[in-house]
Amino acid sequence: MYVPEHFTYDAGRLGALLHRVGAGDLVTNGPDGLEATFLPWSLDPTAGEHGVLRSHMARVNPQWHDQGPALVILHGPDDYIDPSDHEAPGQVPTWNYITMHVRGTLLAHEDPEWIIGSLGELVAAQPTGWTMAELSPERLSGMVAAIVGVELRITSITGKAKMSQNRPSSDIDALADALEARRTQDEEPRYPRPSMQAVEYLRGPSREHALAREQAVERARTAKKSGKKPGRTIG
């Protein structure tokens, strides 16, 4: 995935993003070419060198046979940005988004105990209070027989947040206000309602990035006027 430096999304946010979205696309390359299945995932950050993602799929889905190199794509918030959302005129439509590509080695598990343990991890991550104990042994056994466990042993994580970091800080403020207004408007919106996570990211990391850039430009401009080389700020 191509990621300009200013759109880098910290790989350490994988757990937080997975907690918010809960699921993502498993992509493999099998005998019939590329295959993709949308699956729920649980993260064990302590397993292996970079952590492990665990899930399951229907046994009749042939993709679980595609063991080996694989990719899981997690989708964060994404929003259409209208030219009218900007502070300055003369803008063009664009799309903001957060995504994370998790590469690794895919393994399949047919052991019932492994599958039940993985199901328990997925259930425990939800706030409903429902537990596996509510299933009868017969129902659980039948369900486990119909699925296969899958595990991605992570080798690399690449995150990308194209969230208007390249815009002026004042424009980012205007975008955040526009998206928040779109979230709360009473009438049926023209576009899907933005998530609060998108608004918070604009007002947090995006704005901080823009301010740091603007301050660096101002220091360089001041140094040029004085004939001195601009200093660097650490931290």
TrEMBL record:
InterPro entries: Split_barrel_FMN-bd, TR_PAI2-type. Residues 203-235 are annotated as: Disordered. Residues 205-221 have a biased composition (Basic and acidic residues). The keyword Oxidoreductase applies. Keywords: Oxidoreductase. It holds the Pfam family FMN_bind_2. GO terms for molecular function: oxidoreductase activity. Coiled coil: none annotated. Its EC number is 1.-.-.-. It comes from the Bacteria. The keyword Oxidoreductase applies. PANTHER family: PROTEASE SYNTHASE AND SPORULATION PROTEIN PAI 2. This is FMN-binding domain. Residues 222-235 have a biased composition (Basic residues). Gene3D superfamilies: Electron Transport, Fmn-binding Protein, Chain A (2.30.110.10).
